[in-house]
Amino acid sequence: MNQDKEKERCFRYILFLLGGRDYSSYQLIKKALDKDYSKDIIDQVVDKLIELDYINNDRYIESLIRSYKGRKGYRFIFQKLIEKGFSGVEIEQKIESV
Predict the structure, then answer these.
(1) What is the reported pLDDT for 96?
(2) How many Cβ atoms from other residues are within 10 Å of residue 2's Cβ?
(3) What DSSP assignment string belongs to 20-79?
(4) Using one digit for the tens of pLDDT, what is the confidence trace for 50-95?
(5) pLDDT score of 1 more than 70
(6) CA dist 25 to 9, 17, 29, 69, 71, Å?
(7) Interhelix angle for 88-97 vs 57-68, to 10°?
(8) Is 34:42 a contact under the CB 8 Å cutoff?
(9) Among the listed ranges 14-18, 44-48, 53-57, 69-73, which one has the minimum average pLDDT value?
(10) How far apart (Å, rounded) are the C-alpha atoms in residues 64 and 66?
(11) For the chain, how far is it from start to end, CA to CA, in angstroms?
């Protein structure tokens, strides 16, 4: 497949996913890899969408923390964010600030 066409298809696929809900960049990369897009193309598309603020990991983390805070404990929230591809340091900083 032509690289430009693959890039366009990958871009449209990720936008389609984001139309339903927010995802972390890790989740989007994983989903695009499952659809057999090349890692190089996926990285370019994800970088562009981050630049355009369609993907914002900080916003995603804060939103998830707010949705669980008060109903779930620290360990549960921490584990959920680890599953979504975030580092422990990243999570701890956001949990303290939210």
Answers:
(1) 82
(2) 7
(3) HS---HHHHHHHHHHTT--HHHHHHHHHHHHHTTS--HHHHHHHHHHHHBTTB-HHHHHH
(4) 999 999 999 999 999 999 988 999 999 999 999 999 999 989 888 8
(5) no
(6) 17, 12, 6, 22, 26
(7) 60
(8) no
(9) 69-73
(10) 5
(11) 44
Q: How large is the average pLDDT for residues 6-34?
A: 97
Length of the chain: 98
Q: Does position 97 have pLDDT exceeding 90, yes or no?
A: no
- 37-to-15, 29, 47 alpha-carbon distances in Å: 14, 9, 15
pTM of the predicted structure, to 2 decimals: 0.88
35: tokens are 């659809």
